[in-house]
Design goal:
Elements lengths: L1 H17 L2 E23 L4 E9 L2 E14 L2 E11 L5 E13 L7 E15 L5 E2 L5 E2 L6 E19 L2 E18 L9 E14 L1
Antiparallel strand pairs: 1-2, 1-3, 1-11, 3-4, 4-5, 5-6, 6-9, 7-8, 9-10, 10-11
């Protein structure tokens, strides 16, 4: 049944996407992830676990595709699909999609837009080290790389500036959102723990 529903949805969307304007973009992304779980501590005196929290701001390479199929006056409505990745112990991967509304301003020749998207976020952090507290009890922490998976949403707003007939410069894009933990390779005291996302992007957009 699930495959049938996906097939019917794909068939219903194909005519609209086939007649849509296609834009492809490549971006340099810096996303600040806060409240990210970075391991666990255990206090044998009180027999309690505590999440260890960290923040990260890894540079990422990103890209995406925008399908614009509804144009009314100066407004364009479409679907945006994007992703980003970075390698290394501290890093992140994202995949998101959602509606995008842009404004054509022929006088000043800029294209402001806003998009509301949801999807998947994966974070990697270096983990914490083993320490001890002042009361003589050992606090065991996870020193390995910590990987967390999140369901996430983010609101993006930016400005594209035309530089050639089919190429725009994405002067700036700013995004902000939240997410909650889906899975972690560390003990999770609160399985619905949320993180906060804040991103600043720039890049190139190519229209077809």
């Amino acid at each position: 049944m699930r495959r049938l529903i996906l097939f019917v949805l794909a068939i219903s969307l194909f005519p609209a996407l086939a007649h849509a304007q296609l834009s492809v973009y490549f971006t340099s992304i810096n996303t600040h992830f806060s409240n990210v779980q970075n391991g666990q501590s255990y206090n044998p005196t009180t027999s309690t676990y505590t999440n260890l929290i960290t923040t990260s701001w890894p540079p990422e390479f990103g890209g995406g595709v925008t399908f614009t199929w509804i144009k009314g006056g100066p407004l364009n409505l479409g679907l945006d699909v994007r992703g980003s990745t970075t390698h290394g112990t501290t890093g992140a991967d994202t995949v998101m999609a959602g509606p995008r509304l842009s404004l054509r301003t022929p006088i000043v020749h800029i294209k402001p837009y806003i998009a509301a998207e949801a999807g998947y976020v994966d974070t990697r952090t270096a983990g914490s080290t083993v320490t001890s507290n002042g009361g003589g009890s050992t606090v065991a922490t996870n020193a390995a790389t910590i990987t967390n998976q999140y369901a996430a949403w983010e609101i993006f707003g930016g400005v594209d500036v035309p530089i050639f007939s089919h190429i725009d410069f994405r002067a700036v894009e700013i995004g902000g959102g939240r997410s909650f933990t889906v899975s972690s390779n560390a003990f999770t005291v609160n399985s619905s723990q949320q993180i906060t996302l804040f991103s600043i992007d720039t890049g190139i957009v190519v229209h077809f």
